[in-house]
Design a protein that fits this description.
heterodimer, A: 559 residues, alpha/beta, TIM Barrel, 7% strand, globular, B: 133 residues, Rossmann fold, 5-stranded parallel β-sheet, 40% helix
Chain lengths: 559, 133
């Protein structure tokens, strides 16, 4: 028997033979499988051998320098903490306005508007499909009048207030409303900042809140790029989103690959529309999920920055470093929250938020403990914000830039995520691009397959969800939740009728006609929509005008 | 002739979150049932008409938006009108506790909240779907 270990030989093979194998013979490992939540196999140990092929200077680099694996800011969070941006919206504009004032008073540093489904789908509340949906999942915004109520008493000319709006198909209509309200508050469009989600590709892929067909939808987006580059230069024109792709059941890698490939598609369409890459790409931002597998998520964010920087420089010839630097918002994984033993969700969210911070997120939303059951109460929303504040101010992780940089495991996983993404991009490029891939149902099928595989792993208890398929508790006390009744619908229906009676309907008709004429041709739709909004045309009317010209998209469902 | 249980899975209303609907559709199919998935944005009228055409034994509604108290009563009412009282309606999604007795009173017994094992839904449908003759 060999007793003297040659200490000079630090190779993994030698360690496995001399140290690991005798141990495994005595005490075998747990059954496993040792895989990430996405099903990626993980080895028991990573060493210098696993990262030997990585050239630090060229492929990782220091923070603030290409390719930005270690972050886009040289000082990390020592300079500026991430923006603590809690997504909120429910009921009437007045109720949501009050929630914003509460969040600002509690130390929140950015507003984020959640709209209800009728608004997201470009329908006024009197449409038959809106039955029971008004004000339920977000705030109901029908016209400029509601937008004025939503921001009443919140100074939009204050440069400290930045507003993110989660709106996609009717993004330009809602953005036009915001711009008019900002103007009423005395704000200069050249100085205001905020974010429009405005990402239609992930709607076709995952969340399914589409209205118009893909190509017309892409035109609305490039119109916003062009308009903002001249008129609202500090506005983030798009937040290319993996969040919903992940929530729909994708793996971490699919989230990364499809989202960045969506980003490339927008850049290509922008350039095809005649824009200069460095004129609009610096205002593009991203939005990722933070799921429960801690290191896989951190690797995802680190790989995202590198992939984007290299694609912008090498694929599109961007010269401005601000086009290379990927900025992103993160939200913890709603889909990971359990209705069972809901207080456990505070812990899940804290770990997910920590992963986002260690991955260098620029802005963060933490979910509330009751969100598998309902929209959050005021109390649960406050705990969610406090979770971020504890990470920022108590944990110490903000003292150092990219503390996991150089970890054998994290660097290797970052590299694996990058390589996996490039493979997906090749497949999608071969199809002709993301619009074509979506039309063929490719990302949709990949996601449906991954979500079914995950659900089966849960059923077989290969993946443990505490409180759901293990550690179950029979005698749970019900939680007090936010219950949204139908009073919002009644009020909004009354307001809609009043609006249509009191506004100048001839002016509304003229502006909608001009919008249709523009949509048939090549005029930028933003100025036309601003005219409609100033005339108090409703979201439903503006979208209907475009539906008449462009038609509606219908998907072929894939199961 | 096939004795398989026939299930229409539908997404009513405006909500596009179809992960649950698609996973359960596949699980029921793998469990030997005949599954018809309607796709998104279905009105109660469209759903009941699909159930009639497809000779469905079960309608599965996936609702996460909070609109269930509007959609479910209408579906049940339309089924009665068409003489399809014996079609079992089950729902899955985010349903507050206070609404459970109201849905039970409509005759909806299969209400599956987040975290329900797929097997439990399969077992429920096998035990409660009308007998095929």
């Amino acid at each position: 028997m060999k007793t003297v270990v040659d200490r000079a030989d630090t190779s993994k093979a030698r360690w496995e033979r001399d140290t690991l194998e005798p141990t495994l013979r005595k005490s075998p490992e747990r059954k496993g499988p040792f895989t990430t939540i996405s099903g990626r196999p993980i080895e028991r140990l990573y060493t210098a051998e696993d990262v030997a092929g990585i050239d630090y200077d060229r492929q990782v680099g220091n923070p603030g320098e290409f390719p930005y694996v270690r972050g886009i800011h040289p000082t990390g969070y020592r300079g500026k903490l991430w923006t603590m941006r809690q997504f909120a919206g429910f009921g009437t504009p007045e109720e949501t306005n009050q929630r914003y004032k509460d969040l600002i008073a509690a130390g929140g540093t950015g507003l984020s508007v959640a709209f209800d489904l009728p608004t997201l789908m470009g329908r006024d509340p009197d449409h038959p499909l809106c039955l029971g949906e008004v004000g339920k999942c977000g705030v109901s915004i029908m016209s400029l009048a509601d937008m004025e109520r939503l921001f009443e008493g919140i100074p939009l000319d204050d440069p400290k207030i930045t507003t993110s709006m989660t709106i996609n198909s009717p993004a330009s209509m809602i953005f036009a409303m915001y711009l008019v309200v900002a103007e009423q508050h005395g704000a200069d469009w050249k100085k205001i900042s905020g974010t429009l989600q405005n990402d239609i590709l992930k709607e076709f892929i995952a969340q399914k809140e589409y209205i118009f067909p893909p190509r017309q939808s892409m035109r609305l987006i490039t119109d916003i790029f062009a308009f903002c580059s001249k008129e609202v230069p500090r506005w983030n024109t798009i937040s290319v989103s993996g969040y919903h792709i992940r929530e729909a059941g994708s793996t971490s890698l699919q989230e990364l690959a499809f989202t960045l490939r969506d980003g490339l598609e927008y850049v290509q369409y922008g350039m095809d529309a005649g824009l200069d890459v460095d004129d609009f790409v610096p205002r593009m931002s991203f939005f990722f999920n933070s799921h429960s597998d801690f290191f896989e998520e951190i690797a995802k964010y680190r790989a995202a920055r590198k992939l984007w920087a290299e694609a912008m420089r090498d694929r599109f010839g961007a010269k401005n470093p601000r086009s290379w630097a990927l900025r992103f918002h993160t939200q913890t994984a709603g889909v990971s929250l359990t209705a069972q033993q809901p207080y456990n969700n505070v812990v899940r969210t804290a770990l997910q938020a920590l992963a986002a911070v260690l991955g260098g997120t620029n802005s963060l939303h933490t979910n509330s403990l009751d969100e598998a059951l309902a929209l959050p109460t005021r109390e649960s929303a406050t705990i969610a914000l406090r979770t971020q504040q504890i990470i920022a101010h108590e944990s110490g992780v903000t003292n150092i830039v990219d503390p996991l940089g150089g970890s054998y495991f994290v660097e290797k996983l970052t590299r694996d995520m990058e390589e996996g993404t490039l493979q997906y991009w090749e497949t999608i490029d071969r199809m002709g691009g993301m619009v074509e891939a979506i039309e063929r149902g490719y990302p949709q099928k990949e996601i449906a397959e991954a979500s079914y595989q995950f659900q089966q792993a849960v059923e077989r208890r290969e993946k443990t969800i505490v409180g759901v398929n293990d550690f179950i508790q029979a005698d749970e006390k019900p939680l007090e939740i936010l219950y949204i009744d139908d009073s919002t619908a009644d009020l909004q229906l009354q307001r809609l009728a009043d609006l249509k009676r009191t506004r100048d309907n001839d002016r509304v008709g003229r502006t909608l006609d001009a919008l249709q004429a523009g949509a048939r041709g090549r005029d930028n739709t933003m100025p036309l929509l601003l005219d409609c909004v100033r005339a108090y045309a409703t979201v439903g009317e503006m979208c209907d005008a475009l539906r008449e010209v462009w038609g509606e998209y219908e998907e072929v469902p894939v199961i | 002739m096939s004795q398989k249980i026939r299930v229409v899975i539908a997404k009513p209303g405006l909500d596009g979150h179809d992960r649950g609907a698609k996973v359960i559709a596949r699980a029921l199919r793998d469990a030997g049932m005949e599954v018809i998935y309607t796709g998104l944005r279905q009105t109660p009228e469209m759903i009941v008409s699909a159930a009639l055409q497809e000779d469905a034994d079960v309608i599965g509604l996936s609702i996460l938006s909070g609109a269930h108290m509007h959609i479910c009563p209408r579906v049940v009412e339309l089924l009665k009108e068409k003489g399809l009282d014996d079609v079992q309606v089950v729902i899955g999604g985010i349903i507050p506790d206070v609404d459970l007795p109201k849905l039970n009173a409509l005759g909806i017994k299969g209400i599956f909240l987040p975290g329900t094992p797929m097997q439990q839904i399969i077992d429920f449908i096998n035990a409660n779907a009308r007998a095929r003759v």
